[in-house]
Fold this sequence. Notes:
199 residues; MetI-like fold; mainly alpha
Amino acid sequence: MVKKFVQTVSYLPHFLSWVIVVGLVFQVLSMDSGILNQILLKLHLIKEPINFLSIPKYYWGIVGITNVWKEVGWGSIIYLAAITAINPELYEAAEIDGASRLKKIKYITLPGIKSTICILLIINIGNILNSGFDMQYLLTNGLVQNVSQTIDIYVLKYGISLADYSLATAAGIFKSVISVILIFIANRIAKAMGEERLF
């Protein structure tokens, strides 16, 4: 029961729209009824509610934590699938030899999913410049606008809204070229280390 609950709580956010996720973030961080402010007030850590979404220094922390919360389930699904492909007899043999749980992880689980780790790392390196659009666009307000700009928001604001299509195209091509270069570099490093690679 607890296992299914934890799995559902961790997997479900990946399948939610960013609009819903941002709505939840607004509810949690609300000054009036937000659970975070309520907890901090009850613990006497603050004297009055904080408007987290209007303070620039908190902006990227909120974006980062929310992004991890939303996407950790997808990574969990992939890694759990890779772990289930490991032969259970290896764990049984290690247990007979007296291996602790940490040693099983170090000598069986991690080597068993090493190829999955390498492939996902290469793919994610290609997504470094995709710092997001939906969440940042929905969370942006006038008070945090100076720190919330990403390449995608810049393209929308200055490229498309002002009808400067050449700027929007150049920014898109720049992102694509850098992403492809990073994927090639990561793939070459994986090949040099004898690890799994994309091509």
